[in-house]
Design brief:
146 residues; binds adenosine-3',5'-cyclic-monophosphate; four-stranded antiparallel beta sheet; 7 helices; single chain
């Protein structure tokens, strides 16, 4: 099923110059970019985006980290896009991520793991995150030629 997923290159990935490489990986895989925004996340958006983690001991650090510099927020579309992106990203912890995955190749540690992608264990997380970051008129329908 064609679906959309929310992905963002986190501040560590932007600062280390990895944005282009990450976009290329998704393009090469055949996914379609339908929205992108280079932006600074404020405190309120960070707390809402990571709301499910508000009781975790690392919550404040997570919010500080994600607001520390610009991110590249994106929406990618394709067959089973949520699962595809999750498998390309690897595990949350780069040390647990296989070589060939984005975090396995580029991630440094649990905090500096370069990228976020919508969870597939949390039904509807992709649509919620897309709605949180993008207005409908910021998403563009187009056709890839492969
Ligand atoms: P992400 O997929 O963006 O979703 C929540 C983030 O919390 C996760 O990636 C990690 O970067 C971060 N995270 C998870 N566990 C820890 C932890 N124990 N310490 C610091 N950060 C964490």
């Amino acid at each position: 099923e064609q679906e959309r997923t929310f992905v963002m290159v986190k501040p560590d990935g932007v600062q280390r110059g990895l944005t282009g490489e990450i976009i290329s990986r998704f393009e090469d895989r055949g996914l379609k970019l339908v929205g992108a925004k280079f932006m600074q996340i404020d405190q309120e958006l960070a707390e809402e985006h990571y709301g499910e983690h508000e009781d975790k001991p690392f919550f404040d650090d997570l919010v500080d980290f994600i607001t520390a510099g610009p991110v590249m927020a994106m929406v990618w579309e394709g067959q089973d896009a949520v699962r595809q992106v999750r498998s390309m990203m690897g595990e949350t912890d780069p040390a647990e991520s296989a070589p060939g995955t984005i975090r396995g190749d580029l991630g440094l540690d649990l905090g500096r793991n370069v990228i976020h992608g919508s969870d597939n264990e949390d039904p509807g997380a992709n649509e919620r995150e897309i709605d949180l970051f993008f207005d409908e008129d910021e998403l563009t329908e187009w056709e890839r030629i492969d």
